[in-house]
Predict the structure.
Amino acid sequence: MELIPAAAGGEDPARYNYLAHHAVFKPDSTTTRCRVVFDGSGKDSTGHSLNSRLHIGPPIQRDLIGVCLRFRQHRYVFCADIEKMFRGILVSDEHTQYQRIVWRKDENATLNHYRLLTVTYGLASSPFIAVRVLKQLSNDYAELYPTAAVVLNRDAYVDDIPTGCDNIKDLIALKDELILLLSEAQFKLRKWSSNCYALLKSLPKEICEYPPEDLEEDRSIRFVKVLGLCWEPKPDYIFFKLETPAFTTALTKRILLSELAKIYDPLGLLSPTVVFLKILFQDSWLSSVDWNEVLPQQICTRWQQFASEMHLLETCRVPRYISAPHQEMELHGFADASSQAYAAVIYSRVEVNNGYAVKLIMAKTRVAPIKPISIPRLELNAAHLLSKLIYLVKQSLTVPISRINCWSDSEIVLHWLSSPPRTWNTYVCNRTAEILEVCPRSCWQHIRSGDNPADCASRGVLPKDLVDHQIWWNGPPWLSQSRSAWPPVKAKFVLSTEEEACLEMKAETKVNLHISDDGNSLSCMINKSSSWSRLLRIVSYCLRFVHRLRERNRLSPFLSAWELQYARAKIFTHAQEEFFNVEYKQLTTGQPLSKKSKLIRYTPF
């Protein structure tokens, strides 16, 4: 920030801009509890704001879900924060005039004018500029710091860098290389957290979130937040801190949507309870009440029951680490649907200690459309959603994946997937084609509804039921056993009834062909034409078509005289063959005409 000297009176107002600003207090922050927020969206007297005139830049930010998934694939991890990242990037001098503020130390002091020299939080273009700087930094020093450059380009999310390795030696080497790479741009890393004692021990205590000794000794470590997820480094679990709703105000649509938005769960680990609220909100929408009107008593009762149990979700613990060192991973996805919602969930399966460990990776739910739709189609939507999740997980993780299995309890959907997509109507055809593109038919298998973990996520459950829902947290029991205990595999699903087999079958297009035996085609033209000139032109165009097929040369767009003459001769010849058939045959074979013929007097030839 730089003080601006007393400005000349003739300064053009169009060449500068002033930003409103205020303080924001965050008591739970370990570094900056008071932050300044600048309002780039504040409008001036003309009705425009600085943000309305700035471009936000193309989307180059890493996907949040992808970064969270990669954070769970390493045995040893760390997370660090780039200290005052925005303030470490200078803005072009000519552009600082649009980042002016006024400030005084106390209410009796004179207002001073300043201009901000660095990237400012609150402007539309600031996130893109910050991420673009990190991308350029990783590109410029990729040869000098190859491992750190890849991590910075792949795992950094704005100013947070959550990443890891599968052994301590590589983890510490990555830490040192990352510090050196960021120091090239004068960036410093702070707020280090890790589940590795050796890494924290090699760092100054003042830049660590907690003392390294807390990992070795029997102490309770204060949880840290990684990309908004609550993480306990010592037991290496992910859990949730939720704000218990207040019961003092009447429940409205606005309050219900606000409480639903407060549940931060990017990986969908709490999907069975979140979908309960989604269904509740959809029911409130169908109740036809306004945003600020009190909802019906039935909905309020269901909400109060959910809110009273909401604190139980904080006891849920999900293992962060989903892989195993030097082992290939299997992905197992489950899809299910009900009349209210449909869901998909993915688990990892790795071999450990002569057994198998199954870990919940992520899930996704969607409420069923308000317009009624058949259960088989909803089951197909669930399978379609699962294929999208499988693709996302495959693209995000960097560990080797040896096998992919997709499970559904709908035999109709599996029957659809067993046939070529073109067999079915447009709705089923499009979705089955997209599903099979990601997950071939060999990946799909049938499962009982009682063993399907996606079943609870498609119906919605209360928090107290989710806490002890073992199938949701660990998958079906047989998944952690050898393949001999799995359900039998079917190569093709044949449904029991003919009605089900024909469900969503594409209707065959029937063509009716009428055959008329009216004799020669030229005779038909003669009989159906209303005038000689019309008949002559019709025959001329037909003969022109035959000529084009044989000669392959183009004629003029208009009928020529010789074409009309040729058509006239064809019509006369046809008429003579039809009405003087005997005479025509005698003349063509060289025989004399019969003396009884009507044409004998005309001496025909």
About this structure: DSSP finds 20 helices and 17 strands in the chain. The first helix runs from residue 64 to 71. The chain has a mean pLDDT of 87.
